[in-house]
Amino acid sequence: MSRKQFTTVDEYINSFPKEVGEVLQTLRKAIKEEVPEETVETISYGIPTFKLNGKYVVYFAGYKKHVSIYPLLHAEGVIKKEIAPYIKGRGTLQFQLDKPLPFPLIRKIVKILVKENLERTRKF
């Protein structure tokens, strides 16, 4: 079974049932509020991606019963206890749709990922 190829984040989000789409829009908004103004939204690997300096900051995706954000990279060590209940696989956090999303934690993660991006892409 092949997945639909999306060209915009809106197209991706609109492909979900209304309830999932609303959660994805709220997640998207929270991420946008934490990334620098020059960060670009795009689709990479078939899912919404925020890029800064031409490199990913964070990916997010929707599923039938959860939403996920990726990758955690070094964030795992910084906030290991806080993210432990949400870790599903290496570098992936899953948030069940039947529970409120932990937006303060998500915002904290995005801030760490922005910092990592800036360190990775620093021009010498």
Could you explain the architecture of this structure?
- It is a single chain.
- The protein is α+β, with helices and mostly antiparallel strands.
- Helix content is 40%, strand content 23%.
- The chain is built from 5 helices and 5 strands.
- The chain has a 5-stranded antiparallel beta sheet.
- β2 and β3 form a beta hairpin.
- α2 crosses α5.
- The radius of gyration is 14 Å and the shape is globular.
- The protein starts with 8 loop residues before the first helix and ends with a helix.
Strand content: 15-25%
Distance between the termini: 45 Å
State the major sheet.
Answer: 5 strands, antiparallel
Rg for CA atoms: 14 Å
Shape summary: globular
The helicity comes to 40-55%
Strand order of the largest sheet: 1-2-3-4-5
Derived from helix and strand composition plus strand pairing, the structural class reads alpha+beta
Average pLDDT reading: 89
Question: Total helix count?
Answer: 5
Q: How many strands appear in the DSSP assignment?
A: 5
The helix-strand sequence is HHEEEEHHEH
Residue stretches low in confidence (pLDDT < 50, at least 5 long) are none
Q: What are the key terms here?
A:
alpha+beta, 5 helices, 23% strand, globular
What does the secondary structure layout of this molecule look like, with pairings?
Layout: H1 9-14, H2 18-34, E1 40-44, E2 47-52, E3 55-62, E4 66-70, H3 75-78, H4 80-83, E5 93-96, H5 103-121
Antiparallel strand pairs: 1-2, 2-3, 3-4, 4-5
Helix pairs in contact: 2-5
